[in-house]
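Teaching assistant's notes for section 4

Start the section by putting this record on the projector. Ask students to predict, before seeing the second block, whether Basic membrane lipoprotein will look compact or extended. Collect guesses on the board.
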Amino acid sequence: MKKVLLTLTVGLVLMSVFFAGCQKKEEPVAEVPAAESQETQAEPFKAAFVYIGVPGDLGYTYEHERGRKYVEAQLGDKVETTFIENVPEGPDAARIIRQYAQKGYDMIFATSFGYMDFMYEVAQEFPDVYFEHCSGYKTAENMSTYFGRMYQARYLAGLVAGKSSKSGKIGYVGAFPIPEVIRGINAFTIGARKVNPNATVKVVWTNTWYDPVKEREAAVALLDDGCDLITQHQDTTEPQKAAQERGMVSIGYDSDMGKFVGDSVLVSPMWNWGPYYAETIEQAMAGVWKTHSFWGGLKDGVVELSEFSPKVTDDVTSLVDEETAKIEAGEWDVFWGPVKAQDGSMMVPAGEKMSDPDMLNMSVFVDGVLGKTGN
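Reveal the predicted structure now:
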């Protein structure tokens, strides 16, 4: 009997241990918070940039690349960016833009005028992708345009050039005779002639955006023709270097070219794309992006002037500051009349101001420019 009782007691003890163990295993396990779960983390927003040149040009593409890096610095892990350089303005552009869309990129930035038609074509095929085109005019439900009123900074640089050129003969290396470039040449000339009514701006076309050899050759031709100050609408520092080698001064473009060439670069109208890129991507991430045609100016910080060279006198910098304040306050803008065309006709009558559409389609030179637009 004792043996039976002992056996029953041991059995009961073992059963209680067994069920206690089972009960312990059934206790709820703490869940990993959603924010900490790798599987539930949101995928980063993917943005691709298509460049006409190389970031090493120290000019146009260099500034777009700085803008891309600004995005990464500001948005961190929320965004993933990439870029491709040296993309021709032709059918290849459509292929590359399409590939980015097919690979799941959420937004694509095309940074040169000649990409417009190709981006527009691809935008029709991918309605859920955001497309942003620099300097063009075609838009769609999912495609916007963006640019800056560089003509304002060009005008300010023209003031510096007009005050600094001893001969009044200024050389301008131009890329293509399109409205963007013609507008910049005209604004620069208006600035130069405001402080020196006899100043002239001679234009040589290279018909390329990025070609260091052609840019240098054009600058040398202008120097040989008696110009003592060189500027350009091109993508590299070669015109500035050519001027420096001749003991002449220059005005930079796109970026602060004085950092790369030296004090012979008096000042540079430059781009500041970073804030626009970051804000546009954030709008898309938040689902509030809408198609638009952005054209910001000095007031918006998209265009600006670099620091002045020590060669620029205080009276000139003070004048630039005064004119900047007028433009930013909306009291005046560059293409407010009277403005005469190259042939002497009235381009903008006194008391009137040129409309944005007219500026965006500008095709003739102002008085003081030497050269042809091809239009």
